[in-house]
Design a protein that fits this description.
Layout (H helix, E strand, L loop, with lengths): L9 E3 L7 H5 L5 E5 L3 H12 L4 E5 L2 H8 L6 E5 L1 E2 L2 E2 H11 L4 E5 L4 H9 L4 E4 L4 H20 L8 E4 L2 E4 L4 E3 L5 E3 L2 H13 L6 H7 L10 H13 L10 E4 L3 E4 L3 E4 L1
Parallel strand pairs: 2-3, 2-4, 4-7, 7-8
Antiparallel strand pairs: 1-3, 5-6, 9-10, 9-15, 10-11, 11-12, 13-14
């Protein structure tokens, strides 16, 4: 029986549990596998998850859409036929809404299907049965090209920041912890965190933070920055005596103390 949207997504090497190994992999690329075959989902979740990738696997387009609305996904592995659903329609919809790379899987070898998938915006195509090792190589190659494009500033429409195991989704404004827990930020907290992350390690004064976060008006003072930083540190589970993500530069302002990655 094909899976339905009511099925719980399976997740390896980055699931929403307190598993230390999952937390250690939280900064790795997040791959979404969409296939109605539970055997394929289990195989790819295990194999890709053992090779420095975070993997979530779901059975259908409904579950795919729900997950994309909540989490930052770096690449989608999408089956061409999902029971009554057409993977090509899902690929078209996904490409219309984002620049997330897509690898199509199919049990058919017809040239027309491959051409259609690529014309709809898929980045690659594999015919079943396939080698998981080959899929891994293709996924890594696409992610490398994407990182190169980002460095050369060819991409627009950034979707998220990833820092210190955390993810800040710019579309939903949700803050996702290394354990996969979702939290919300107030408008001022969100704006201030975006300003800090955008500086990528540079120290910003309180006045600069007020200006960059667009909080500057007659009723907002530099002391408000300190209060917002305190609230952000609490939500980031920071040690108040030795904060790691948001560092105080005495007499100068604040900066991000961990590596910041931009997700497109």
């Amino acid at each position: 029986m094909p899976g339905t949207a009511s099925q719980e997504p399976m997740s390896f090497a980055g699931s929403g549990t307190a598993d230390p190994e999952a937390e250690a992999n939280a900064g790795h690329p997040h791959i979404l596998v969409v296939d109605d075959d539970p055997g394929i989902r289990e195989l790819l979740s295990a194999y890709l998850g053992q090779n420095d990738l975070r993997v979530t696997a779901v059975a259908d387009g409904g579950a795919m859409g729900a997950l994309l609305g909540k989490q930052v996904i770096d690449l989608v592995v999408l089956d061409l036929k999902l029971g009554a659903e057409c993977g090509l329609d899902l690929a078209r919809r996904l490409r219309d809404q984002s620049a997330i790379p897509i690898v199509m899987l199919s049990g058919q070898s017809e040239e027309a299907d491959r051409v259609m998938a690529l014309e709809l915006g898929a980045d690659d195509y594999l015919t079943k049965p396939f080698s998981p090792r080959e899929l891994l190589a293709r996924v890594r190659a696409i992610l490398r090209r994407r990182r190169l494009d980002v460095r050369q500033q060819r991409l627009e429409g950034m979707r998220a920041y990833r820092f210190g195991g955390w993810e800040l989704n710019l579309n939903t404004r949700e803050l996702v912890s290394p354990k996969g827990q979702h939290g919300t930020l107030g408008n001022a907290e969100f704006s201030l965190l975006v300003a800090l992350l955008g500086a990528r390690g540079r120290t910003l004064s309180r006045a600069q933070l007020l200006e960059l976060s667009r909080l500057h008006d007659d009723e907002v003072y530099e002391r408000a920055v300190d209060i917002l930083v305190m609230r952000l540190r609490r939500k980031l589970s920071e040690d108040s005596a030795n904060p790691r993500c948001i560092v105080t530069m005495r007499g100068a302002g604040y900066r991000i103390g961990v590596r910041v990655e931009r997700i497109y």
